[in-house]
Amino acid sequence: MASSTSLSAPASEGANSNNIVYKFSADYPAKPSLTVDQVHRCSEALKFFKDKLQKPYQIKQEFQSLQASRPRPSDVMRSCSVALDGANLSKNRYTDVIPFDKNRVVLNSCKDHRPSARGYINASYITTSSSEDISRFIATQGPLPHTFEDFWQMVLENRCPVIVMLTRLVDNFKTVKCGDYFQAEDGPREFGNICIATKWTTTTDTSLELRLLEVNHKESEVPPLSVLHIQFPEWPDHGVPKDTLAVREILRRACHVPPSLGPIVVHCSAGIGRTGTFCTIHNTIQRILVGDMSSLDILKTVSTFRSQRIGMVQTMDQFVFCHDAIVDELEDLLSDYNKEIISKWIRIPVHGFGVKRRLLPLSSLLGNNVIWSLAIKGKAKKYEALFSSSSSSSSSSSSSSSLP
């Protein structure tokens, strides 16, 4: 449940360049309905990750291998030449966190007062799949005051429907972690040729701060871009939240937005630690749901992300947190799927049909001696059906011919 603050929070519509309309709402998003196959995949994934969490040495070894494969400074200089251009150096919040040339976000050439070389902004496209069902990300640093306009230009040019902000503006040590590029509750704000306005704000029970913003070029005649801004200020730098609830709420809200609308902008301060952790959790859950079980390889996912932006998922604690959040989300997704699925479908080994396993209705199993696994509240349990053993060979033969 969300509690309203300065502005009321009705549903608001947003559309991308393809005129796909999505209604943003402050209401907590409904849990997705899973198909039978999705229930099975989530059950398999849950068992895998729970087993893995019982082997902390394996998780530690995986993270150590990630750290051992970090690029050398000389490789960074060759791969990040645009970020190191003299005209762009001041646009980097941290000198050692810069985007690779190959997948950096390139802005249309600046034709105004902003100094820049080759459309530079410290931001990287992040993805693991070309599937239209999997969200793409833009991982970026917390904007600096002199890059606010660049940031909003990036959002407009890429038609980004959601911004996930995983940092405070100033930390407990009074260190500035991000510039205030988004607060416009007292009226529209202008950044060069770009104007933003707040339609509503609200704070959720998990301390998320939600804002529905409208963004447009000044004096533009096209409709403004609606952007849902989600801030989680309680996630500490280089650390992890006290639980997974808020992160999973962000996941639910972001996953409800069709990937076809545009990439999701994710940033913390540097745009790698907390940012990489959220992207890993989001990407893994989404891929499991669409049937990509290679997503269970978190090491490979993070390695892929690090090949697209330096240092994604910075610490061992963040790497473990990825696993914890995935387990909690899978358990929640499966919590409603016990009796209904079991009463209609069971999964058994079937040989000779070109696949190792098939989903079969209960009615097709009479006369067979079979063992199957049922997913009950996220835990796999084996049940043995002992039917009449008379003429078992003939009954097996006849029932096989009737399999769907």
TrEMBL record:
The keyword Cytoplasm applies. InterPro entries: Prot-tyrosine_phosphatase-like (IPR029021), Protein-Tyr_Phosphatase (IPR050348), PTP_cat (IPR000242), Tyr_Pase_AS (IPR016130), Tyr_Pase_cat (IPR003595), Tyr_Pase_dom (IPR000387). It holds the Pfam family Y_phosphatase. The keyword tRNA processing does not apply. SMART domains: PTPc (SM00194), PTPc_motif (SM00404). Residues 247-320 form the Tyrosine specific protein phosphatases domain. Residues 59-329 form the Tyrosine-protein phosphatase domain. It comes from the Eukaryota. Its EC number is 3.1.3.48. One of its GO terms (cellular component) is cytoplasm. It is found in: Cytoplasm. GO terms for molecular function: protein tyrosine phosphatase activity. Keywords: Cytoplasm, Hydrolase, Phosphoprotein, Protein phosphatase. This is protein-tyrosine-phosphatase.
